[in-house]
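Tip: read the tokens left to right.
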């Protein structure tokens, strides 16, 4: 009995010591693993901040290999591949994440969004559309709809673009009325090209409803009426446009003149053009008024005053078309000012390495410090 008690007293401390030692060894191993993974991660982050993307990718790959279950490392690696233009590798990383059964719903949506961005950047628009549509109704719903809107506009799918924009506006994301008006205007132009007048009328009605103050629906509506042989109705529409947006009205100045001549309203049109020019002077309005009076813009007496107020190359070019017998010192001075003003941005030296521009020549670029990167010729001479 004394023998067993003796061994028991000796064995208990030994067992405790062995257990403690084993736990310490396991704890050291866990700590070592936890220390190694962040070390690789922070190494990659440091390289990324120093714009060493190749080495950063290698560090992140090492971190992912040490801990394949770390989703953040996968996202970082996929984003790096996308930034470098390695879209196929980015797609593989994000598809691998989506294929994991243990991925939570939030992380799955995030991976789906990253995958959609990969497809978009790679120019795979059909797959990008499918990936973005899979995000509708998720926390990434707004981002997906905005991306789909840009995608549909790029592919000229105006019906789909208008539908997405309407949903975004209904959800309170912002005001998309002007954008929807452009979508419906594009549809109206397409319908007119197919000679589908009824569909074009409906599209323009939708455009005006989406953005009642938008100038483009009025501009197109007037042009359609003029082509249909209704110049008086076209003038009425364009007068409404003139009251709202004179710069947009200036775009159809010549059409306005032709419609006024067709229906015998030249005097009213002249008054309208003069009032519009007084409120917002532009060369287009001046050219339309000259056409209404039956002479070229170069012969218009108001051209010199316009050139003095707005010394642009367009006005100077019109002035140069005048006969030499009509030139005087004020006209010459106005042209000199306009040409000199337009030439200033071109009379600079530009660094071939970074694009830095300066009025004088440098042997060493002040921007990127490169030597001999400034060609001795100015921009206009290159």
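Filled-in amino acids:
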């Amino acid at each position: 009995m004394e023998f067993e008690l003796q061994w028991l007293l000796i064995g208990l401390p030994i067992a405790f010591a062995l257990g403690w030692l084993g736990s310490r060894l396991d704890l050291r191993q866990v700590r070592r693993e936890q220390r190694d993974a962040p070390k690789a991660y922070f190494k990659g982050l440091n390289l990324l901040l120093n714009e060493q993307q190749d080495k950063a990718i290698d560090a992140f790959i090492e971190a992912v290999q040490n801990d394949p279950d770390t989703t953040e490392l996968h996202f970082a690696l996929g984003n790096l591949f996308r930034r470098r233009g390695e879209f196929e590798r980015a797609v593989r990383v994000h598809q691998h994440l989506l294929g994991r059964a243990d991925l939570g719903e939030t992380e799955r949506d995030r991976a789906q969004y990253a995958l959609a961005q990969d497809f978009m950047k790679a120019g795979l628009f059909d797959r990008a559309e499918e990936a973005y549509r899979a995000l509708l109704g998720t926390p990434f719903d707004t981002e997906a709809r905005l991306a789909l809107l840009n995608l549909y506009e790029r592919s000229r799918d105006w019906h789909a673009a208008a539908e997405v924009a309407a949903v975004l506006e209904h959800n309170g994301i912002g005001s998309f009325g002007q954008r929807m008006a452009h979508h419906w205007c594009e549809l109206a132009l397409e319908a007119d090209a197919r000679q589908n007048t009824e569909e074009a009328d409906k599209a323009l009605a939708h455009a005006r409803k989406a953005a009642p103050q938008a100038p483009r629906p009025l501009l197109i509506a007037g042009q359609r009426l003029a082509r249909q042989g209704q110049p008086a109705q076209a003038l009425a529409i364009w007068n409404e446009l003139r009251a709202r947006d004179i710069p947009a009205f200036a775009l159809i100045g010549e059409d306005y003149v032709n419609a006024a001549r067709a229906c015998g309203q030249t005097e009213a049109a002249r008054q309208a053009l003069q009032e519009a020019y007084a409120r917002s002077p532009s060369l287009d309005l001046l050219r339309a008024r000259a056409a209404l009076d039956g002479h070229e813009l170069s012969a218009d007496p108001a051209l010199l005053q316009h050139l003095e107020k707005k010394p642009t190359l367009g006005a100077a070019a019109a002035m140069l078309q005048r006969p030499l017998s009509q030139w005087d010192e004020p006209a010459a001075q106005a042209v000199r000012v306009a040409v000199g003003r337009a030439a200033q941005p071109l009379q600079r030296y530009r660094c071939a390495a970074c694009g830095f521009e300066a009025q004088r020549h440098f042997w060493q670029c002040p921007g990127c410090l490169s030597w001999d990167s400034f060609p001795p010729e100015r921009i206009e001479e290159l």
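The longest helix spans residues 2-49. Confidence is low (pLDDT under 50) at residues 33-37.
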